[in-house]
Amino acid sequence: MVKIIIYAGLSIPFSEAKEILDSTTDVEVIYKRPIQRGDLSQALKETPDIIGIIDGVFHQNSAVGHKEILNVLKKDVKVFGASSMGALRASELDTLGMVGIGYVYNQYASGEVDSDDAVAVMLDSDTLEPLSEPLINMKYVFENAVAKNILTSDEKDELLNIAKKTYYPKRNYAKTLSDSNLDSDKKGELIDFIRESKDIKKEDAKELLTHIKKIAKI
Question: What is the pTM of this model?
Answer without folding.
Answer: 0.94
